[in-house]
Tautomerase enzyme (Pararhizobium capsulatum DSM 1112), 56 residues
Amino acid sequence: MAFYSKLTLALKDRCDIASSDVMISLLINSDEDWSFGLGKAQFLTGELGTSTERPQ
């Protein structure tokens, strides 16, 4: 609950968005749940690297 409170306070302070205008929805997903266009699941096809990979 602290996260929601801190987030709405930050939005009010930084962006002047009222807490009554904020809706937060969190869900767990995995690589196969993402597509960044072209009808492909780029995490599964290897077109996107992981956050631990570094460019050469």
